[in-house]
Specification:
heterodimer; A: mainly alpha; elongated; B: alpha/beta; TIM Barrel; 8-stranded parallel barrel; two-stranded antiparallel sheet; 10 helices; 40% helix
């Protein structure tokens, strides 16, 4: 049997997220000229507005692509059906990309990938920068059987659609969609090194595969041999990027 | 930054918001004496916001003000929350650590809002137990802020100010007295703001907040979207006379003005404090 305070908090919370509980409405008095039901509505209405604001901050590009009407309505519906389990409002929306895909995937097949890119960008933005090995140090340390340890402030993403360029654009909705070439798979790395700025780079499928094997902890020679068609020049280019980007923090 | 330029003795600060990061990092001459940061914006981030906060802290005192502690929640603070807050406190060494006297939903379903508690003995016991746990863990006192409200619970057994003071007394915590919130709730629920303020003992007041509300026609809404109104300034004059050394904060969260607009409100708070002190002495 819940205590009176526990019951009140449960009813209040449920009334804000979902439909107003008639028992709860009867147990309060409205402030100002508000009836009790109107007073509960103040809290009910503020809830989706607040969650929408949080989603809008994280999923800016999705908002531009979908336009105000569709995006804001999607946020409102998502907020009512998906409670926040974190104390941090900026953590809200981990499943929003999937929700957008289900809702708008027919007209905008890339929307789930775009949302996932924005979600991961938010995570890297808040990640602790790592101190990568300087290129000469890395070059001197690496041997054929070396295992490279990568810093945590990086994420390698694979998409079914080319959403990286779409995400980079800052144009109005129609221009974005008309000019966007989103057909085909794409791989991208989001990372930061010693600074706080988040950087990104589109990778070929071959480079992405090699980088993925290396990040999994496979020895260098084994990782490179596992990727078909990775010639000497491609290895050189990939390593130049890894070194310049400061992705590696240790060589074992 | 030139801390305290033209600010005299009045300890007036402003809320640290990303809209002003660039301006503040240019180290402007300003009468603003301190900043208040929203704890949750920095607790889980090692990115640019924390970088800026540390840069500001190098020149100014900083207070940490939370919005998600849910000190009145029957489940108590969330797992992991206090550990992260304590880590941030160790990094920033804040002037004051505060949050709101409310609950914010349940662990599994936070509404990210400051929901008013019923003013009951059971709620006092719950809050006091939570405050004790928090203060023991953090190893320092916290301050609790009175929230604006748009409804009252019929189950309440006492006035809001009695509830607030009872908690401060029994938990050994302090009060962040939000003058605007007192005014908003007074207008919404028909009590006298002056009586509320006069009922708060000076020794409990750790900090004052000043902000702006929106008049929705049928009620006052605490939006922090404009400058404090004249009645709120008058209430502030009444309180600052009693507690001249208490840090005062201008809060602005929506439709945030440029730095000079925000600074102008801080200057007004300083001027009123000086006038009030002159009258008092």
């Amino acid at each position: 049997m819940p205590s009176p305070l526990e019951a009140l908090q449960k009813a209040f919370t449920a009334s804000v997220i979902g439909d107003a509980d008639p028992g709860f409405v009867a147990a309060v008095e409205g402030g100002g000229k508000l009836t009790s039901a109107e007073a509960v509505e103040v809290y009910r209405n503020a809830y989706p507005a607040r969650m929408t604001e949080a989603l809008g901050e994280t999923f800016e590009a999705c908002w531009r692509v979908l336009g105000d009407e569709d995006f804001l309505e999607a946020c409102r519906v998502y907020a009512r059906s998906t409670p926040s389990a974190s104390y941090n409002l900026s953590d809200y929306g981990s499943s929003f990309p999937e929700y957008l895909k289900e809702r708008f995937g027919g007209d905008a097949p890339f929307i789930g990938d775009l949302g996932r890119l924005e979600w991961e960008f938010k995570n890297i933005f808040h990640a602790e920068p790592h101190a990568g090995l300087a290129p000469p140090v890395l070059s001197a340390a690496v041997k054929g059987n070396s295992v490279l340890v990568f810093g945590a402030a990086a994420v390698l993403l694979s998409f079914d659609h080319k959403v990286h360029d779409l995400w980079k654009r800052d144009r109005d909705n129609s221009a974005l969609l008309e000019r966007a070439d989103w057909e085909g798979a794409q791989h991208a790395l989001l990372y930061k090194n010693e600074g706080s700025a988040v950087l990104s780079r589109v990778l070929s499928a071959r480079d992405a595969a090699a980088l993925n094997f290396l990040r999994e902890g496979r020895p260098l020679g084994e990782a490179l041999a596992a990727v078909e068609g990775l010639d000497e020049e491609a290895v050189h280019d990939l390593f130049s990027f890894i070194a310049a980007a400061g992705l590696v923090t240790e060589v074992r | 930054m030139k801390a305290g330029a033209d600010g005299g003795d009045a300890m007036v600060g402003v809320g640290l918001r990303s809209a002003h990061f660039s301006r503040l990092l240019a180290r402007p001459r300003t009468p603003v004496r301190w900043f208040e940061a929203i704890s949750e914006n920095y607790m889980d981030s090692q990115g640019r916001p924390l970088e800026v906060l540390k840069a500001i802290r190098a020149d100014y005192p900083v207070a940490l003000h939370g919005v998600s502690l849910s000190i009145g929640g029957v489940e108590g603070p969330r797992p992991g929350y206090l550990e992260r807050l304590k880590r941030l406190i160790a990094e920033i060494d804040p002037l004051v650590v505060s949050d709101h006297l409310c609950f914010t939903g349940a662990h599994a379903s936070s509404v990210h809002d400051l929901l008013p508690l019923p003013y009951t003995e059971e709620a006092i016991r719950t809050v006091v137990a939570n405050v004790s746990r928090v203060q023991d863990f953090l190893g320092r006192p916290i301050a609790l802020e009175n929230v604006s409200s748009y409804l009252t619970h019929k189950s309440s057994e006492m006035k809001e100010e009695e509830f607030l003071v009872a908690i401060a007394r029994r938990a050994g915590c302090r009060i962040l007295l939000d003058v605007n919130n007192v005014y908003v709730s007074a207008m919404n629920h028909g009590f006298k703001a002056e009586e509320y303020l006069d009922a708060i003992p000076n020794e409990f007041i750790a900090q004052l907040h000043l902000g702006g509300y929106s008049d929705m026609g049928t009620f006052l809404f605490d939006t922090h979207s404009r400058a404090p109104t004249d009645p709120v300034w008058e209430l502030y004059r009444r309180v600052i006379r009693r507690v001249p050394r208490v840090p005062v904060l201008i809060e602005w969260d929506e439709a945030i003005p440029d730095w000079s607009g925000l600074e102008a409100e801080a200057v007004k708070a300083i001027r009123i404090a000086r006038e009030a002190h002159a009258v008092a002495s």
